[in-house]
Design brief:
The chain is α+β, with helices and mostly antiparallel strands. It has two domains: 159 residues, Immunoglobulin-like; 114 residues, Serine Threonine Protein Phosphatase 5, Tetratricopeptide repeat (Alpha Horseshoe). The protein is built from nine helices and 15 strands. The strands form four sheets. Strands 2, 5, 6, 11, 14 and 15 form a six-stranded mixed sheet that branches. It has a four-stranded antiparallel sheet with strand order 1-3-10-7, with no helix packed on it. The N terminus is likely disordered.
Length: 352
């Protein structure tokens, strides 16, 4: 009898709690979200036509492991599902998708893909570092705008092979056991400003799209703000981890990086080396001159990274390491990369 009474009391308690929770939700409350998304923009004021950078962080706050679907290899130019998108709108206006031009995904836990998703432990997050353009008219008209990060997880995205977009035979990955839902970040306000001086001349010369022709822009408007982004675009690329090999780099490794044809005659090989060397030297001169004029350039970190790589490949090791040291004093993902490289170089140095 006592056991039956205890069971009745437990059932009654569960029913009361259920009614209390249901009442709270009915009055406008909501169950706690399993996933949270945040948006961080290091630059809140931009010129019309200037690219922006953003960090989108997706956090598992469910208290248990969640499989989050991500189309990590998808087209960065499209607002596909299963990737974070950015929406921009004039205050109170209709939102539009921003145009992503680059996307890098990292996490504070080991990323291991499984069937179109990643298992995120509780309290862990996945981070996206994005470069994007504002769509027109927002990107061209001065004013204040609202940006929101939007993550729509459907667990179903276009496959890597087979199928054509828009055709009945599209190939899709279906992420089994994946969390599905939609979550938005808090809005962030940005201000688009009208360009002036050389920036205005560049903006008008390229009809509102100053980065459509980076090489031409660098020739005609080398000290415009837009030229900094063109330099990043035309830099040597690559990771700073190359510096960890700076004690042992060989001429053959440099030839491979410069695409020197090994089967060609010595004369043709040397002609290729001279051409690439000249291009690198020209890039170094332009990048150094730009940073001297624009020390507060919004993406000085990316430009210094390109500059360091170019100096290193030219054999100017000390100058390259000076740029890495400057990077290590900054903040952000590139700075963290520089700090790791400097630590590895120090530990690998003779006598360390």
């Amino acid at each position: 009898m006592d056991q039956e009474l205890a069971m009745v009391r437990k059932i009654a308690l569960v029913m009361v709690l259920g009614m209390m929770m249901g009442s709270a939700y009915a009055q406008g409350g909501a169950p706690p979200a399993s996933v949270a998304i945040s948006l961080d923009l290091p630059q809140r004021q931009v010129l019309a036509g200037e690219p922006l950078s953003a960090t989108v962080t997706i956090l598992n706050q469910s208290g248990q492991a969640l499989k989050l679907p991500f189309d990590a290899g998808g087209d960065v130019l499209g607002p596909w599902s299963d990737v974070p998108a950015l929406l921009v709108s004039a205050m109170g206006g209709k939102p539009h998708y921003c145009i992503q031009t680059a996307r890098n995904m990292t996490a504070d836990f080991p990323l291991q893909a499984e069937d179109g998703g990643y298992w995120a432990p509780p309290g862990k997050s996945i981070r996206f570092d994005l470069v994007f353009d504002l769509p027109k008219p927002e990107g061209a008209q001065p004013g204040s705008y609202s940006l929101v990060a939007h993550y729509e997880a459907q667990g179903r995205h276009l496959g890597q092979e087979g199928g054509i977009v828009g055709q009945p035979n599209d190939a899709y990955y279906v992420c089994n056991q994946c969390w599905k839902g939609t979550v938005d970040s808090a809005p962030v306000t940005i201000t688009v400003q009208a360009p002036s001086g050389e920036d205005a001349a560049a903006y008008q010369a390229f009809k509102g799209d100053p980065l459509a022709h980076p090489s031409d822009l660098l020739q005609r408007f080398p000290t415009s703000t837009y030229a900094g982004y063109a330099l990043i675009h035309t830099g040597p690329g690559g990771s700073l981890s190359t510096f960890e090999k700076c004690w042992t780099i060989t001429a053959r490794q440099r030839d491979d990086a410069w695409y020197v044809p090994q089967a060609a005659s010595p004369a043709r090989q040397e002609a290729r080396r001279q051409l690439v060397r000249s291009n690198y030297q020209g890039f170094v001169q332009r990048a150094q001159a730009f940073l001297a004029i624009h020390p507060d350039f919004a993406r000085a970190d990316l430009l210094r990274k390109e500059l360091a790589n170019a100096l290193f490949m030219l054999g100017q090791r000390d100058e390259a390491l000076q740029e890495v040291q400057k990077l290590a004093k900054m903040s952000g993902p590139v700075a963290e990369e520089a700090k790791a490289v400097m630590a590895n170089i120090k530990s690998a140095a003779p006598g360390s």
